[in-house]
Amino acid sequence: MTSIKQLCTAALLAFGFVGQARAEAISPTQVHVIDGDTIRLFNMKPDVRLVGFNAPETRRAKCDHERQLGDHATRRVRDLVHSEVLEFEYVDCACPPGTEETPACNYGRSCGILKAGGKELGWSPKGWPCPSSVAPPGARKLRSLGALTFDN
C-alpha cells in the first residue's frame, strides 16, 4: 500500500523538487503552515512535523502565554515561507519502529526538515516557561537556530 508520504515524495521527484537524502527546493505555494512546527505539503495529509525543535502550542496550549508565543511562532514561520527560498526533506521520525504516520508517532504526522534562506527553521524562545520546550525524545539536534527567532 502506498502512503501519502510516498505519494508526496513522488510528486516532489516528478517536479524536480527532491533528490536522494538531501533537501531540495519547494515552492512556497506548496507549503501550508499549520503551526510553529507543523506544515502541510500539497494540501495533503499527513501533516509534517518539523524536527529538531518544538514550538509553543496554539490549540493545546497550557496557558495564554504559551498560546501567544505559539501564535507568534506560527506567524513567523508563515512569514519565512512566503519571503525566503525554501528547501524541504522528509526524514525518519524518532518514533518506535512501525509507528510512523500513526497516532502513536507525532499525532500521525510525517517528519521533515524545512529550510528558509538556507537555514533550518528553528526558534529561540524568550520567556517560555513550559517544560515541553525541548525537542521530542530522540529527535536530532537542530544545527541552525538563526532562521526563526522571537527577536526578529
Task: Explain the overall architecture.
The model is unreliable at 13-20 and 128-152 (pLDDT under 50). The protein is α+β, with helices and mostly antiparallel strands and 152 residues long. Helix content is 20%, strand content 22%. The N and C termini lie far apart (44 Å). It has a single domain, classed as Beta Barrel (OB fold (Dihydrolipoamide Acetyltransferase, E2P)), CATH 2.40.50.
Short description:
The chain is built from 2 helices and 7 strands; from the N terminus they run αββββαβββ. With 152 residues, the protein is of the alpha+beta class. It has one domain (4-120): OB fold (Dihydrolipoamide Acetyltransferase, E2P) (Beta Barrel), CATH 2.40.50.
Provide keyphrases for this structure.
152 residues, alpha+beta, OB fold (Dihydrolipoamide Acetyltransferase, E2P), seven-stranded mixed sheet, 2 helices, 22% strand
**CATH class label:** Mainly Beta
Domains, number: 1
CATH fold descriptor? OB fold (Dihydrolipoamide Acetyltransferase, E2P)
Q: What would the average pLDDT be, to the nearest integer? A: 75
Distance between the termini: 44 Å
Strand content: 15-25%
The number of E-state strands comes to 7
Broad structural category: alpha+beta
| Overall 3D shape | globular
Q: Regions with pLDDT < 50 over 5+ consecutive residues?
A: 13-20, 128-152
* SSE string: HEEEEHEEE
The CATH architecture can be named as Beta Barrel
**Main sheet specs:** 7 strands, mixed
Binned, the helix content reads 10-25%
The radius of gyration over CA amounts to 15 Å
Count of DSSP H/I helices: 2
